[in-house]
Write a structure and sequence with these properties.
The chain has 203 residues and is an alpha/beta fold. It has seven helices and seven strands. It has a seven-stranded mixed sheet with strand order 3-2-1-4-5-7-6, with helices on both faces. The chain is globular and about 55 Å long. Pfam families: NodS (PF05401).
């Protein structure tokens, strides 16, 4: 199995319009705030968010990005996200992580609660493709639940270990608690500076 099937997610949403309670849980609201806070720049040109679901995190991203490409595998979910963000600078598209990547380059790629749906081998192939679509000054932010889920091919920590092992990436920020791991990675070739250094606060 390369990844969880589209039917898995269609079944989840057939049972509840918000099966992970993105709209209701403080855990989810807090996680979105932490994700936004860990980003090293105030603005990004073009973001890619696979697995956008009903658009809660997408709503945060449109406030920080000139344009967002957001994808999911369930048509009804994409329709709800379009309503939520009508008029915003976002394009919604049906697409699954593990498919061939959309054309174009992105200076922000958001892997939020999606990469553990891939097998380790499929994740490796996906990250190879990501390399080809990340700009030289691009940022990957990875956000994943840390507790094991029997249905998922791998854990969130395993996903982050795979990102950290990529020779062309460096970890530039990390937030961890018992439940969630949030990290940013940037191309090593860019020799990324800290936020304070970018702001001229330190040499």
């Amino acid at each position: 199995m390369n990844r969880l099937s589209d039917d898995y997610f269609a079944d989840m949403y057939s049972q509840s319009p918000d099966p992970w309670e993105f709209d209701e849980r403080w855990y989810e609201e807090r996680k979105r705030a932490l994700t936004a806070a860990v980003l090293p720049r105030r603005r990004f040109r073009s973001a890619f968010e696979p697995g956008c679901s009903i658009g809660n995190l997408t709503e945060v991203l449109v406030g920080r990005c000139d344009h967002v490409l957001a994808t999911d595998v369930v048509d009804d979910v994409l329709a709800r996200a379009r309503v939520r963000l009508a008029g915003a600078a976002v394009t919604f598209r049906r697409w699954a992580l593990g498919d061939p990547w959309p054309a174009g380059s992105f200076d922000l790629v958001v892997l939020s609660e999606v990469a553990y749906y891939l097998s380790p081998e499929a994740l490796h192939r996906t990250l190879d493709e990501l390399d080809d679509h990340l700009t030289d000054d691009g940022v990957i932010v990875a956000v994943h639940w840390r507790h094991p889920v029997p249905d998922y091919p791998q854990t969130g920590d395993a996903v982050h270990d795979a990102l950290a092992a990529r020779p062309g990436l460096v970890r530039t920020a990390r937030y961890a608690d018992p439940d969630v791991l949030i990290e940013t990675f940037e191309p090593a070739s860019a020799d990324p500076a800290s936020v304070a250094a970018r702001e001229g606060l330190v040499g």
